[in-house]
From TrEMBL, chain A:
Pfam families the UniProt entry points to: Response_reg (PF00072)
CDD domains in the cross-refs: REC_CheY_CheY3
Residue ranges of every copy of the Response regulatory domain listed in the record: 7-124
Protein name: Chemotaxis protein CheY
Gene behind this protein: cheY
Key words, A-Z: Phosphoprotein
Sequence positions bearing 4-aspartylphosphate: 57
UniProtKB/TrEMBL annotation, chain B:
Protein's cellular compartments: Cytoplasm
One GO cellular component term noted in the UniProt record for this chain: cytoplasm
SUPFAM superfamilies: Chemotaxis phosphatase CheZ (SSF75708)
Enzyme Commission number: 3.1.3.-
Gene label: cheZ
Protein name, as recorded: Protein phosphatase CheZ
GO BP terms, alphabetized: archaeal or bacterial-type flagellum-dependent cell motility; chemotaxis; regulation of chemotaxis
Length: 132, 215
């Protein structure tokens, strides 16, 4: 069973996209959601922020999503944090690079609420299986 | 003249900065003369002029679309609680009616229920119209499509113009082996043109690719 009280960080440089993702998460009954406008701000919020999940864009100023993902995986405190990439980057080498960097899922924009729900569920199920 | 400067550079190595600046100046002059001879100088000037204009147009598109998205999301924020309240109130009344039908003797209870139901029904058109006005607001927010569409069309003309001119300059001046080398980057944004064999077109292809790699 998915813990809906889990704290989720949405990282995207476009405020509209953050709002859309936040609203979709609310629709899926995840109410504990925070936002960051780029990878650098994201890492800052994640450190000591007690987050259980990250939804991140790729192409952002200051620190892009891939660098943020690599920073998370290299950080002893954060390395196990599940990260779902939600991005307009649709090249195959992007998807491969994200997977190799340790992304737990990859969603291409534009996406539907159903896709987001499916990926979230899949990630949580996989994590639960690994933990068991 | 270039032979003279080269000879001078060899003879007086202490003067290299001055010599270098002189050569850069000479190359710039040559380039300008070359462009004029090719009839490209006016085109390059026009292209350079179009760039700040293009930047303005693009920031207009970005601002307009962001405003439209917020406008629609704001309307949804207002309409959703109204919609939810309508549904919750109806469910509440329905439940009370169900209970009364199971045990239909308490007339006082029924009278109160009838009054509440009537009150709810009286209020529905007004509440529905409040939701509808938010739907209209969402509808109106889509006007950005027309505005930005026009600007984007103009932008495409500018970009096309600049591309044709710059491409010609580049092709004329680049080494043959460099001509087919496209810029490689992991930050390309949305695929604006379909049919790129290096990109995926939908979520199913993302999933297939990841699965084939064992993720």
């Amino acid at each position: 069973m998915i813990d809906k009280s889990i704290k989720i960080l949405v990282v995207d440089d476009f405020p509209t996209m953050r709002r859309i993702v936040r609203n979709l998460l609310k629709e899926l009954e995840f109410h504990n959601v925070d936002e960051a406008e780029d990878g650098a701000a994201g890492i800052e919020k994640l450190r000591g922020g007690n987050f259980g999940f990250v939804v991140s864009d790729w192409n952002m100023p200051n620190m892009d999503g891939l660098t943020m993902l690599q920073t998370i995986r290299a950080d002893p405190e954060l390395k196990k944090l599940p990260v779902l990439m939600v991005t307009a980057e649709a090249k195959k080498e992007n998807i491969v690079a994200a997977a190799q960097a340790g992304a737990n899922g990859y969603v291409v924009k534009p996406f539907t609420a159903a896709t987001l729900e499916e990926k979230l569920t899949k990630i949580f199920e996989k994590l639960a299986k690994e933990a068991a | 003249m270039s032979q003279n400067t080269a000879a001078a550079a060899v003879a007086e190595p202490a003067n290299t900065t001055e010599e270098l600046l002189g050569r850069i100046g000479q190359l710039t002059r040559q380039l300008r003369e070359g462009l004029r001879e090719l009839g490209l100088d006016k085109q390059v000037a026009r292209a350079a002029q179009a760039i700040p204009d293009a930047r303005d147009r693009l920031s207009y598109v970005a601002a307009t679309t962001e405003r439209a998205a917020h406008r629609a999301l704001n309307a949804i924020d207002v309409a959703q609680p109204l919609q939810e309240a309508l549904s919750t109130d109806a469910k509440g009344l329905s439940k009370r009616w169900d209970e009364w039908f199971k045990n239909p003797i308490e007339l006082d209870h029924a009278r109160e229920l009838v009054l509440d139901t009537r009150g709810y029904l009286d209020g529905v058109p007004e509440r529905a119209s409040a939701i509808n006005s938010q739907l209209m607001e969402i509808l109106m927010a889509q006007d950005f499509q027309d505005l930005t569409g026009q600007v984007i069309k103009k932008m495409m003309e500018v970009v096309n113009d600049v591309e044709t001119q710059l491409l010609q300059v580049l092709i004329d001046n680049s080494a043959p082996e460099k001509r087919h080398e496209a810029a490689q980057s992991l930050q390309n944004g949305p695929q604006v043109k379909p049919g790129n064999p290096d990109a995926v077109t939908d979520q199913a292809q993302v999933d297939d690719l990841l699965e084939s790699l064992g993720f």
